[in-house]
Design brief:
The protein has 48 residues and is an all-alpha fold. The protein is built from two helices and no strands.
Amino acid sequence: MAVVVARLNKSSSEVLKVNSGSFLSSAAMFFSKSFILSSSNNFYRLVL
């Protein structure tokens, strides 16, 4: 969890250098991945 927080802090500091389009696309990709992971974890809990 600490690694994720460190990555988020690093990426947030790099936002000023990166244009908003690529940042939004990477953020959308990150949130979709985390949503898929959490939903699959819930599914496995329901099955087991």
